[in-house]
Write a structure and sequence with these properties.
Elements (H helix, E strand, L loop, with lengths): L8 E5 L4 H11 L4 E6 L2 H14 L2 E6 L5 H14 L5 E4 L5 E2 L7 H26 L5 E8 L10 H23 L4 E8 L1 E2 L3 H4 L1 E2 L11 E2 L1 H13 L5 E3 L2 H12 L1 H11 L40 E2 L3 H7 L1 H25 L1
Parallel strand pairs: 1-2, 1-4, 2-3, 4-6, 5-9, 6-7, 7-11, 8-10, 10-12
Length: 341
């Protein structure tokens, strides 16, 4: 299990914005040393400031996760400056919103290289350094879309499905080898991140997350808990994630038809599309001369800071004990009533 202690060395990919940035702040609040990996220099500088303000130490490492040499060099630099890596968190991703027939082969390749192979390269770099010590934790930040594909996000859904399969296979190997290195995955709901402000959008209207929308701090709390309790194969965040995965397991064909009917409108906003909308597919929107997008996107007024389902996911034992106690009480009451009769 990952040690929760001051000075813990944590690597976070995609740390310049969204879930990655919120997670960096959460680890920093515990006194961690946080290596921040992302392409955008402006966003990295802002994330480093957040980490130091929260009480941690920050290391900015400009990295394109689609380049395995850059990823391995980032891991080497982290251990050189901070020491052995305790936790590696894969978050970095990019995407294209649009129908499959509107996405080019080059765009598909780029999304897959960043989202899927970026996780593979990050995991390789982490395991290479963790295996000699037989210690460490890798957290893969996933999505409900790792199980359930939705329209207009074929590239993203395909990459998340690939990560899910990769995670399961790797976990089996670690269990077979009785390794003390653990990998776990956190399946996220719709989150208010800057991705909707910088994603390559081929839709007639601006892209938006499918409600309900959660703030990135909810996701960050889930990542921290998973890092501290990595023996579980995965965690679900948000009632919408739970509902989607259960519905997909029970009636996937019916869900296909439902999403075909509702999935187009629910992912498009009525706001006017800005003429200077940035895209981060090929170049970071928060690059050297870019804007610092922070952890939050444009949907603060529509997002929630709470997830009762997340609490329930983290307290299965307590809920099971409570359910057993309630069942016992009901049984005792029924017996007593029968005796009186």
């Amino acid at each position: 299990m990952s040690a929760h202690r001051p000075g813990q060395v944590v690597v976070i990919t995609g740390a310049s914005g969204g879930i990655g940035r919120a997670t960096a702040q959460a680890f920093a609040a515990r006194g961690a040393k946080v290596a921040l990996l992302a392409r955008g220099e402006t966003g990295l500088a802002g994330a480093a400031h957040d980490v130091e303000e929260a009480g941690g130490q920050a290391l900015q490492v400009p990295t394109d996760m689609a380049d395995p040499d850059q990823v391995d060099a980032a891991a080497a630099r982290t251990e050189q400056e901070f020491g052995p890596i305790d936790v590696w968190v894969n978050v970095a991703f990019t995407s294209v919103f649009g129908q499959f027939t509107d996405i080019t082969a080059e765009e598909y390749k780029r999304v897959t290289e960043v989202n899927y192979l970026g996780y593979v390269y990050g995991t390789m770099a982490a395991l290479t350094r963790m295996q000699p010590r037989d210690s460490g934790t890798i957290v893969q930040v996933g999505s409900a879309l790792a199980y359930r594909g939705i329209p207009l996000q074929t590239a993203y859904c395909g990459s998340k499905h690939a990560i899910q399969g990769f995670h399961e296979a790797l976990r089996c190997e670690l269990l077979h080898n009785k390794s003390n290195i653990h990998t776990t995955m956190v399946q996220m709901p719709a989150v208010n991140t800057p991705q909707f402000d910088w994603v390559l959008n081929k839709l007639p209207k601006p892209a938006q997350p499918v409600p309900p929308i959660y703030q990135p701090e909810v996701a960050a709390r889930a990542v921290l808990y998973a890092a501290d309790h990595p023996h579980r194969r995965e965690y679900w965040v948000g009632g919408s994630t739970m509902g989607t995965l259960i519905a997909n397991a029970l009636a996937p064909g019916l869900l296909d038809r439902y999403l075909a009917k509702t999935g187009f409108a629910s992912q498009q906003d009525d706001r006017p599309s800005p003429e200077d909308h940035p895209t981060n597919l090929w170049h970071p929107a928060d690059g050297k001369d870019g804007h610092d997008y922070t952890a939050h996107g444009s949907f603060d007024t529509r997002s929630t800071h709470r997830s009762p389902q997340l609490w329930a996911s983290q307290h299965h034992g307590a809920l099971a004990a409570a359910a057993a106690a309630a069942a016992g009480s009901l049984t005792a009451a029924a017996v007593a009533l029968r005796v009186r009769r």
